[in-house]
Structures are given as C-alpha cells and as structure tokens.
Design brief:
This protein is an alpha+beta fold. The chain has helices spanning 2-6, 51-55, and strands at residues 18-21, 26-30, 45-50. The chain is elongated and about 40 Å long.
C-alpha cells in the first residue's frame, strides 16, 4: 500500500479507512484524514489491481 500512498510525493496517510473488492474484480482502498491540525485533509482513492494480483486469488 505504501508505494501507492507515497506516489504523490506529499503527505502519506497513516492508515486505510476502507478496502473492497468491486464487481469488476479490482481491489480498491480509500483513506480519509479529517483535516485535523496534524493532517492535510486529503483523501486518496487507490485501484490496487485485480484480486488475483493483490490477494493471490480470484
């Protein structure tokens, strides 16, 4: 996950807020840093690839 979260070369979120396998077979992750004093408030939505690639299974 970290390479995807670091791809923008900016703030690296501390944790994922959600992870799902969608109907198209892709795994998606989302962060939500609520704009507190020590966070930017940016949300990152990642397409991590297919379930087979990410999880090693269909």
């Amino acid at each position: 996950m970290l390479p995807g979260l670091r791809a923008t070369k900016g703030w690296t979120q501390e944790k994922l807020e959600g992870l799902t396998v969608a109907g198209n077979g892709h795994v998606y992750a989302v962060t939500d840093n609520d704009g507190l004093d020590d966070a930017t408030g940016e949300t990152v939505f990642l397409d991590l690839g297919t379930a087979r690639e990410v999880l090693g299974r269909d």
